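Model: You mentioned two targets. I'll fold them one after the other.
Researcher: Yes, keep them separate.
Model: Target one:
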Amino acid sequence: MTKQAMRAWTTVRGQVDEMLDSITDFEWLAPSACPGWLVRDVVAHLGANARAPIEPLPEIEPAPPMPDNRERLHDLVVARRRAWPIAEILHEYHTYVPKLVDFVASMQDQPAAEKPFPVPGLGIYPAHSLANAMVFDYYCHMRHDLLRPAGPLYCVLPSPDHDTVYSALVWMMLGLPQMQGSDLDETVRAPITFRLTGAGASEWTVHRRGPSGALVVEETGGGDVVVTSEADAFIAWGTQRRRWRTDCTIEGDESLAVPLLDALNIV
């Protein structure tokens, strides 16, 4: 199960809380590194995600049109909070995050752990992996959208630890075959291994299997092409927050890896 991820989520939540305590009135309105979102919008997104499975806001009638880009689905809930004062955004966050922790913790043991849990627009996952999703969401937004050098905020935090980064990677690798539908399948013409170093060090191989040729990700090495990157950097370029060429080296036929690397965009 992902009880490791529950512990990692505790760690990263504490770091987010420390960061929130240091944000100035000016910084709340600063642009984050998440396109189109201010600092307040990123925090509103975290609070909205915490509230959604517990006590969601009533649906808007008529419902707003759904964006074509699956990554912009979150804009809908953020937009509903744009007129809220900062105090209300923080109240939602601090009210619902502890309730979400209890909700996700209830899915860490059998039989709930392996039940399929649909995430709209992003696929179906074992329920226990929601802990990994939370680590990924908090870590990625904090380290790569809000804090310097990419973001506007300054907060001294410890270096990323293995359990936190690895827990985030697990979610990304579960999502890789699902989040972009069949479009990503065509970019993989041979097994490709991601060799991730530093905190979260691990190896993952992407290949196609079965009559449909659908993508499969396994935690192993041995691919025809090996893409090496620091694991923390993978979280940034694997979500298209920066260009992969800045962080990667490729062993083997580069032409086999480039289509996947160019297209990869995990949410």
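Model: Target two:
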Amino acid sequence: MLQVKNFSCLFLVAMLSFTFGCAATRTQESTGEYIDDTAITTSVKAAIFNDPYLKSAEINVETFKGVVQLTGFVSSKSEINRAVAVSRSVKGVRAVKNSMIVK
């Protein structure tokens, strides 16, 4: 009987650790959010790459909780505006932070 009680307690602790270990916080993503953000990043990169106006630009894309951050170098302010507009058009993007620099 003692073994069953110890096993039940251990099982409960393990389940609570698993449940709260995968929960999201303000500074940390859950597993599902991470997968969603990876998909958004891939979609934004593809959209930028497929845009004929932005193909030569050096733009890096990172996503955290649906917010896309664009960094890197472009040739003009109009390329920055275009990259931001293309990024906003991707499904799942909540906001776009622009940290690109005109070289």
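Researcher: Noted. Anything on target two?
Model: The mean pLDDT is 84.
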